[in-house]
């Protein structure tokens, strides 16, 4: 999962002529400020130091300025902040509100698809209904991203292409997670590999997911190789490092046992 700072860069946080930090939502026109008070409320959203403070600032903005053109952007920031705070329920609420304000926000579609895949269990009675919905969202986002235009003309082409690659990687990761729940291991492996190979900044967490599927499929050498890569990824979160170590240990043990799990 991308950090808040990477998410903000991906949606091209910019400084307007008035000095306000203003983010463009994906594929919409530049929002405009209508007053000094609205400017201050928008600045508070982007300058808040942690997820709880950002969410509070978003609610303050939307409460005081019902017609703000920053509604979609602000709700997206609240969605990302709720995810960063590991509050899945609140993330879903803000994600749905974001799509009401900005139906083409493919980043939020990907967040919802990944969350659904992560929360769906093998014996859920509505498993296929949930997975079909998540698959539809992921594929819809993947279809939109390649044709997405730059949020602003002066954004360097290489930065925009890198952002799109990371979003595409998230889409393939979501499809890999969905395939994993369905126990379609070959499909999951192919999707996770696409996510890793095509990302501008390959994610160690995706490597761990790929290692887990390799383990489940009995491909222990492949599992060990990708998990070693995950552990050597710069700036990987300690929890991801630990998960990679644990999964590698399982792969090594299974290989020593002759493939008996």
Tell me what you see in this structure.
Helix 7 runs antiparallel to helix 8 (157-181) and helix 8 (157-181) packs antiparallel against helix 9. Strand 1 (13-15) and strand 2 form a beta hairpin. The protein is an all-alpha fold and 261 residues long. The chain starts with a helix and ends in a 5-residue tail after the last helix. Strands 1-2 form a two-stranded antiparallel ribbon. It has a domain at 1-104: Serine Threonine Protein Phosphatase 5, Tetratricopeptide repeat. The protein contains twelve helices and two strands, in the order αββααααααααααα. It has helices at residues 4-10, 36-47, 51-64, 71-84, 88-101, 106-119, 127-144, 157-181, 185-198, 204-216, 220-231, 238-256; strands spanning 13-15, 21-23.
Helix-strand layout with pairing:
Elements (H helix, E strand, L loop, with lengths): L3 H7 L2 E3 L5 E3 L12 H12 L3 H14 L6 H14 L3 H14 L4 H14 L7 H18 L12 H25 L3 H14 L5 H13 L3 H12 L6 H19 L5
Which properties best describe this structure?
two-stranded antiparallel ribbon, mainly alpha, 2% strand, disordered N terminus, 261 residues, Serine Threonine Protein Phosphatase 5, Tetratricopeptide repeat
Give the structure's gist in a few sentences.
The protein is mostly helical and 261 residues long.
> Ranges with pLDDT <50 over ≥5 residues?
1-28
What is the CATH level 1 assignment of the domain at 1-104? Mainly Alpha
Q: Which strand order spans the largest sheet, edge to edge or round the barrel?
A: 1-2
The CATH topology of the domain at 1-104 turns out to be Serine Threonine Protein Phosphatase 5, Tetratricopeptide repeat
Based on the coordinates given, report the CATH architecture of the domain at 1-104.
Alpha Horseshoe
Tell me the distance between the termini. 29 Å
β-strand amount:
under 5%
Q: What characteristic shape results from the CA principal axes?
A: elongated
How is the main sheet built? 2 strands, antiparallel
Report the average pLDDT across residues: 87
- Helix-strand pattern, N to C? HEEHHHHHHHHHHH
The Cα radius of gyration reads 20 Å
Proportion of helical residues: 55-70%
The count of β-strands is: 2
Task: Quickly count the helices.
Answer: 12
Q: Which secondary-structure class do the elements indicate?
A: mainly alpha
């Amino acid at each position: 999962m991308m950090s808040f700072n990477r998410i903000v860069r991906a949606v091209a946080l910019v400084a307007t002529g008035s000095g306000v930090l203003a983010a463009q939502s994906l594929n919409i026109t530049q929002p405009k400020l209508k007053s000094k008070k609205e400017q201050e409320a928008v600045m508070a959203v982007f300058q808040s130091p942690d997820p709880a403070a950002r969410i509070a600032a978003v609610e303050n903005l939307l409460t005081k300025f019902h017609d703000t053109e920053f509604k979609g952007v602000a709700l997206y920031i609240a969605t990302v902040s709720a995810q960063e705070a590991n509050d899945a329920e609140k993330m879903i609420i803000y994600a749905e509100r974001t799509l009401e304000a900005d139906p083409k926000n493919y980043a939020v579609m990907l967040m919802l698809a990944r969350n659904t895949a992560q929360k769906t269990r093998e014996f859920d009675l509505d498993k296929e209904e949930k997975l079909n919905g998540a698959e539809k969202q992921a594929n819809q986002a993947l279809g939109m991203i390649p044709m997405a235009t730059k949020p602003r003309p002066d954004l360097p082409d290489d930065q925009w292409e890198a952002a799109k690659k990371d979003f595409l990687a998230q889409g393939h990761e979501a499809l890999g997670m969905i395939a994993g729940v369905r126990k379609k291991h070959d499909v999951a492996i192919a999707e996770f590999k696409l996510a890793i190979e095509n990302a501008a900044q390959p994610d160690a967490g995706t490597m761990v997911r790929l290692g887990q599927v390799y383990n489940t499929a009995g491909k222990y050498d492949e599992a060990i190789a990708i998990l070693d890569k995950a552990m050597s990824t710069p700036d990987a979160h300690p929890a991801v490092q630990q998960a990679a170590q644990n999964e590698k240990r399982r792969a090594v043990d299974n290989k020593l046992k002759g493939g008996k799990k």
